[in-house]
Amino acid sequence: MDSLGSRIPSAVEESEVSVSIAATSLESAPELSVVMPARNVGAWISEAVTSVLTQTMTSLELIVVDDGSDDDTLEILAGFDDPRLIVTASPASGGGTARNYGVTLARGRYLAFADGDDLVPERAYEALVAQARRTGAEMVVANYVIFSPTTLNDRNQWFPRYGRTREGVVIADEPVFLRDRVCWNRVFLRDSWNAAGIRFADSPRSNDIQAMTDAYCAFAFDVIPETVYMYRRRAGGSSMTARKNAPESILAHFEQELGCLASVTALQDPHVFARYSEHMLNHDVWAHIGPLLDPANVSDPAYDAPRAAMRQFILRTLPAGKRALSPVRRAVYALAEAERWAAAAAIASVEELAEEGVRHDAASVMRHLRSSGLSRSDAAVEALRISLLSPLRRHSMLDDAALESALREARAFARAHVPTRTLSRRERHILATSPSAGALEIRDRIDSAPYWPSAPERMIQHALRDAKAAVGIGDRAMKKVGREAARSTQRASRKLPAPVVRAARKALGRERDA
């Protein structure tokens, strides 16, 4: 036999060898077992494995479970020479099955999970296990980051629950944690994991959310602020995130959501159920509803099964969660309940425009307006102003090519959706400029455009107009009131003492001279 770092079982002997490796690979059991499923991650597996094996906490084993890779993943793993690395093959396909199999081989007191294309900061497991040792916690969770070639996002920035250390948290006190259901930013006491019977789902998508929901329902847990994981957001067709809009992927997700719902329901805690329903409907479910209500998919039978699964979730959670929803989202979910998918798609499109501040490209805005029946409406005018004319007002920040492109998009959008009479003089002035005139001419044209009130000023004008209409005072009546007020002031001035009148006239004269 070769060293364990290069020992990769064949298809014939994989089961027996996996067990023998787990039983004999180290003289004593490690403190931590890290389970890492891997499938066609040759481009990243070396970095992922290295980040685990170079942890400051050295008493660990890394169990890599190959899920049928047909790239160079196994060859790269064979190049590692570290007795703490165990490489084995999954008995069946699927990331959930691979994780479950890895757990059966684990010998550490604590259990952690990582993916074959991500990174683990070098002090991560030291921090997590130290907290678990100190308090005896059955689960310790911590902050993480999501990165891509161009972005780096800290989870605590938009899920502010990891800012400080807390001990003995239970889900009844903080149901919001049911939204944070990834498996790799935490460690578990392995005996507690096995005693609770927690298993990952055999699902092509979201196979960790039910297992993590079960863990939250079973354990009190500690929270620490350290960043313990770096999740890689991959681009391209090979990534699961790139396939998330496919009907089979969405169906798999909602099947897991229904499993999570069953676990939360079993707690029989109305407070937890209500908060869970609110968070799911406002966040996770809404994040997955887009492809189901996309105008291009509303009539596609391939999406019938995912829509039916989503509807089942909505039927059971909407009564408890609707009070936290915006009127538009409440309407969308109510229409989905009634299986009026085209109507739900139209309303959801309006919500998307409002939610994103209409900051889409012109083609996307046009598509949403057409699908929601808002073409050539006031909404189209505001879409033009917010999405397409705003960059033109900040033209000094655009290079010449970007400026010409922005003007071209704005003109095309205005022609298709916006009646000229609804535009201000300034907007008409800008849109009358031809993109072929050149960037210098466009900039001059924008700078010389008539003044247009800012958004707050327009809001005040609208409010004033509404207030006058509410009390039955039109513009003509307001002018009459103003003239009467001026005459009253003149009459009052005649009754003032002469010295006061003279001083006032002198002050007014100085003001005019100035």
Automatic annotation (TrEMBL):
Gene3D superfamilies: Spore Coat Polysaccharide Biosynthesis Protein SpsA, Chain A. It comes from the Bacteria. Residues 33-167 form the Glycosyltransferase 2-like domain. Coiled coil: none annotated. Pfam families: Glycos_transf_2 (PF00535). This is Glycosyltransferase 2-like domain-containing protein. The lineage of its organism: Bacteria, Bacillati, Actinomycetota, Actinomycetes, Micrococcales.
